[in-house]
Amino acid sequence: MAQHDPAYKLLFSHPQMVRDLLVGFVSEGWIAQLEYDTLEKVSSSYVSEGLRTRESDIVWRVRWGERWIYIYLLLEFQSRPDRHMAVRMMAYVSLLYQELIRGKQFPSGLPPVLPIVLYNGTRPWRAAKTVRSLILAGPDELVPYQPQSQYLLIEERQHQSAQPSNLVSALFRLEHSRTRGDMKDALDALIARLPSDEQSDLRRAFSAWLEDSIMPRVQGGPTSKLKDLKEMRSMLSETIQRWKREFKREGLRAGRLKGLQEGRQEGLEKGLQEGLEKGLEKGLEKGLEKGLQKGLEKGLRQGKQQVLLQLLQTRFGEQPDRIQKRIRRARLEQLDAWVERVLDAPSVEALIGGKRARAR
Asked: What is the residue range of 77's domain?
């Protein structure tokens, strides 16, 4: 997520985004006791005693219950698994405490801290979540002296298929959407939750994030600045429609060309062979005609198979042998149906089926 950090930080610099993150993705009872109208962003840049600056991504504080105990939320954005993330988060918490001690903000005791890692990568996160699990085994007597620091992981990929219930869930779905329908639904959910007369700053933040991370992925390059989410939705819809038409046009053109080339050669060879085998009784002309027809059909089928495999590779990557074999055994009508739906399909299994699809 490093290349999109500024846009993500801008989004989570709004209290409504932090509230939706906690309410929607932290399933603990004390979350309901927070007074979200007290959410306050604080400095996230700290200087250690060695005069080295360390900066976490965003820090907020919020009142909890009637005791005016503040919960500090450290949000660390991550796009790749980090084996030592628990150590990094422990360092951020320590620097935060040092800053509070220097400022004498909590003379009677330090406030509790909730460190959150927001991960948007595609690979499963398998890094340790506690510092203790990174420390090698030693004498049992040393165990009480080892740090126990832990962070909360929110892994976007586990929530990408859920229907948007708030701004953050819509953000997750939009970032991980792969079809036109998913993008439209997620954008509609965002627009419905951000009235045009309200939340203007947050709407601009979402527009900036879309321009930075979503539109270049769809259009294949940078986009011009847009003023509003509705304008972004219109542009996104037009771009995806054009993208779909171009893919379909390219696929049909390639299929026809390949079918004609292979069909002509196959038809001539097969027609001559069948005509000679059937001899004078049916005549060479009839054999050539029948062979040419079969050859053209086979060539057209092979051409469409190749186009479908190319489209699947563009959207989902190289396909395994079982998918390629299924495509080569398919009838012409089935190939036509798959080519028609390939750009809207959420996965290869959903389009073509197979062992995984049947298992579900």
From this structure: 1-158
